[in-house]
């Protein structure tokens, strides 16, 4: 009952002497602190908006420019070439200012205009400079004099102390490649995969497209690139992610692992306390834009930061034809799942974030709670693991009002979702293969009803203190989650730490209200849909053959000593392994980022090339010498790196072809070439985001 009393600001009873009004000072205090917290966030957003809006200048530079203009005016020098005098004459018509006031106002107006013009000039100059990507194609470790001069210019126009979104308006737009260039690169990529007759037929289709329909579709795409911030990203999110009707689990969502060989505490609630607090510290930095934008080439070239915006307080909402992404600006709670029950946990107390020991206390209260799940509650999250259409219809039919709507709102508007898992997972030295397989599969799909796959991410803490994360893909790509994840692991181990007994540092707080059980009223019809979705999800999970193991023979340091790209080395190794296994080559998908451009996401690198095929065949040919194989390996490695650079700089194949296909659908015209290209299956997908790779 304690939390019920604290949930109201006042209570009253009617007595013979009149109404007895009793104010709850604690509730009023919490209302005041909550309002104060909201106004602080509004002020911080406003301040950051001003700072980002004038970047690469700073608000204080306005004063410097205005003072400089006023100083020259008082020295009887006109820095405006007559503009100040015209402003003065305009103000003179108002007839409400003294001569001195008009003089000062004219100087301030001109100084402000000059300041804005300087900002626009600096921002446009930076955008032009960042449009140059020749540095990517230079030999590794060797920068030309022109590139060094260019780097100095970028640093001059980049300003000082950038915030998370400072560079957004200075980033160039993703260019639209020429149709003929894309078609030629496509034909080059499929030549080693097709028989001679099939390749001739595809060449004829491609050449016809490049001459006839292609230029018409390209015109619309060019128009979109001039109007929209990015000509790919919105369609990619809409049609590749949100329009997908299959399960998110396994097919789309991905996972992140804990450090393999380090376990700072075996206490589940304590590990949750530190790491949830670390996630909230990171969220605060995102809200305040205190995270520095990621810079490449010796902290010179910025990457787009747009994907950070929806990391927290975000959920994917199912629809019958298409899903939507729901993002709220702030959320003061998380939802925790344990043994089939859902708990709402407030993140603030007395106007501040809960401390690690206090979060541990809340998690322990959930772990100790003896209550049983309500009817249908235990497996409710299976709806998010199955097909999207049944979930969308079920949501509309049974979650539109009453306690179901309130509880679902609590889940979907939570900062993120947490699962206190009942199993023990992690790397075991005595059984490395089985333990790793089990750990990875648990993070990928769990029991199909103990992760909320629609949330931006589900944070998972296992019974033995190991942790992991399952992330929904539509709102952002893996490197964004990777940045959060590395921060959490580093903060947990090196900043927060634990007591000798394994608990979080600090003291418990008995005044914090208990977590609140979410209430559900799920009719039998809804429970039947849940069971159907669970059956579908279990079938998908059981169909996954997962094999993961630690490889310690060598790492990227040794590969780099051989003057070879680690990524190219791994991709060529995968091509060789696939050929040994299947006896043929296949279309291979590797993702590269396009965040050198505003709102850029990914592009495909077609890793199976004529050069990689030559290398693989040489490895399988006993008549080839080591020298010949090494020469072919270097050629194939350089080819792969070149393709990766083309993809990063907007000259990839697949996103352009995808957008041309979308335009053709809008125009209701059929393209045999595009239809065949977009239907080709990717037999091998080799994308990954290694940890310990994100710069801070």
Automatic annotation (TrEMBL):
Domain Carnitine O-palmitoyltransferase N-terminal: 1-47
Keywords: Acyltransferase, Fatty acid metabolism, Lipid metabolism, Membrane, Mitochondrion, Mitochondrion outer membrane, Transferase, Transmembrane, Transmembrane helix, Transport
Subcellular location: Mitochondrion outer membrane
Record-listed E.C. numbers: 2.3.1.21
Reactions listed under catalytic activity: (R)-carnitine + hexadecanoyl-CoA = O-hexadecanoyl-(R)-carnitine + CoA
Protein family (similarity comment): Belongs to the carnitine/choline acetyltransferase family.
Name of the molecule in the record: carnitine O-palmitoyltransferase
Pfam families, sorted: Carn_acyltransf (PF00755), CPT_N (PF16484)
GO molecular function, one term: carnitine O-palmitoyltransferase activity
Transmembrane feature ranges: 62-84, 104-126
InterPro entries given in the database record: Carn_acyl_trans, CAT-like_dom_sf, Cho/carn_acyl_trans, Cho/carn_acyl_trans_2, CPT_N
Swiss-Prot/TrEMBL GO biological process terms: carnitine metabolic process; fatty acid beta-oxidation; long-chain fatty acid transport
Main location: mitochondrion
Gene3D superfamilies listed in its UniProt record: 6.10.250.1760, Chloramphenicol acetyltransferase-like domain (3.30.559.10), Choline/Carnitine o-acyltransferase, domain 2 (3.30.559.70)
Membrane topology, as annotated: Multi-pass membrane protein
Residue intervals of the Choline/carnitine acyltransferase domain: 174-692
GO cellular component, one term: mitochondrial outer membrane
Residues annotated as the enzyme's active site: 473
PANTHER family: CARNITINE O-ACYLTRANSFERASE, CARNITINE O-PALMITOYLTRANSFERASE 1, LIVER ISOFORM
Annotated pathway: Lipid metabolism; fatty acid beta-oxidation
């Amino acid at each position: 009952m304690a939390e019920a009393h604290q949930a109201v600001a006042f209570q009253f009873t009617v007595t013979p002497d009149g109404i007895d009004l009793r104010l709850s000072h604690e509730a009023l205090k919490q209302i005041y602190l909550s309002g104060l917290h909201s106004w602080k966030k509004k002020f911080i957003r406003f301040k950051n908006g001003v700072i980002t809006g004038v970047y690469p200048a700073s608000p204080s530079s306005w004063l410097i420019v205005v003072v400089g203009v006023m100083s020259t005016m008082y020295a009887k020098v006109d820095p405006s070439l007559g503009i100040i005098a015209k402003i003065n004459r305009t103000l003179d018509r108002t007839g409400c200012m003294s001569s001195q006031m008009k003089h000062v106002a004219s100087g301030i107006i001109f100084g402000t205009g000059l300041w804005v013009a300087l900002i626009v000039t600096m921002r446009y100059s930076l955008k032009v400079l960042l449009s140059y990507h020749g540095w990517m194609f230079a030999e590794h470790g060797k920068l030309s004099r022109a590139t060094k001069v260019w780097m100095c210019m970028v640093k001059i126009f980049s300003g000082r102390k950038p915030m998370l979104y400072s560079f957004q308006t200075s980033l160039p737009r993703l260019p639209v490649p020429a149709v003929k260039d894309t078609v030629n690169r496509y034909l080059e990529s499929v030549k080693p995969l097709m028989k001679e007759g099939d390749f001739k037929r595809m060449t004829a289709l491609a050449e016809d497209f490049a001459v006839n329909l292609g230029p018409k579709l390209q015109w619309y795409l060019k128009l979109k690139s001039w109007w929209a911030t990015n000509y790919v990203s919105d369609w990619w999110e809409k049609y590749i992610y949100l329009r997908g009707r299959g399960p998110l689990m396994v097919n789309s969502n991905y996972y992140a692992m804990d450090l393999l060989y380090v376990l700072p505490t075996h206490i589940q609630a304590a590990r949750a306390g530190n790491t949830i607090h670390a996630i909230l510290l990171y969220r605060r930095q995102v809200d305040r834009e205190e995270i520095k934008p990621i810079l490449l080439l010796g902290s010179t070239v910025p990457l787009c930061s747009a994907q950070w915006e929806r990391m927290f307080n975000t959920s994917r909402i199912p629809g019958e034809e298409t899903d939507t992404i729901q993002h709220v600006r702030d959320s003061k709670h998380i939802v925790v799942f344990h043994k089939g029950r859902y708990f709402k946990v407030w993140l603030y107390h007395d106007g501040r974030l809960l401390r690690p020991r206090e979060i541990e206390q809340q998690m322990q209260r959930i772990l100790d709670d003896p209550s049983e799940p309500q009817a249908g509650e235990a497996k409710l999250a299976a709806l998010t693991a199955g097909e999207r259409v049944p979930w969308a219809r079920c949501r509309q039919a049974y979650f539109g009002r009453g306690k179901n709507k309130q509880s679902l709102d609590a889940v979907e508007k939570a900062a993120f979702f947490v699962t206190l898992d009942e199993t023990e997972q992690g790397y075991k030295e005595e059984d490395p293969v089985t333990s790793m397989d089990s750990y990875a599969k648990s993070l990928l799909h769990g029991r199909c009803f103990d992760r909320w796959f629609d949330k931006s991410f589900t944070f998972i803490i296992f019974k033995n203190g190991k942790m992991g994360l399952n992330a929904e893909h539509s709102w952002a790509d893996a490197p964004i989650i990777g940045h959060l994840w590395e921060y959490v692991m580093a903060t947990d181990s090196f900043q927060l730490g634990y007591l000798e007994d394994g608990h979080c540092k600090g003291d418990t707080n008995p005044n914090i209200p208990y977590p609140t059980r979410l209430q559900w009223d799920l009719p039998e019809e809804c429970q039947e849909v849940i069971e159907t979705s669970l059956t579908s999800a279990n079938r998908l999970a059981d169909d996954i053959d997962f094999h993961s193991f630690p490889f310690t023979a060598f790492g990227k340091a040794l590969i780099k000593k051989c003057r070879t790209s680690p990524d190219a080395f791994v991709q060529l190794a995968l091509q060789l392994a696939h050929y040994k296994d299947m006896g043929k080559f296949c279309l291979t998908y590797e993702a590269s980022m396009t965040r050198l451009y505003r709102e850029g996401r990914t592009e495909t690198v077609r890793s199976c090339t004529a050069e990689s095929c030559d290398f693989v065949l040489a490895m399988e040919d006993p008549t080839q010498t080591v020298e010949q194989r090494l020469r072919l390996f270097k050629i194939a490695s350089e080819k792969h790196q070149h393709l990766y650079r083309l993809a990063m700089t907007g000259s990839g194949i697949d996103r352009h072809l995808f957008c041309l296909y979308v335009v053709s659908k809008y125009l209701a015209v059929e393209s045999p070439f595009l239809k065949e290209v977009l239907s080709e299956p990717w037999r091998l997908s080799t994308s990954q985001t290694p940890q310990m790779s994100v710069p801070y």
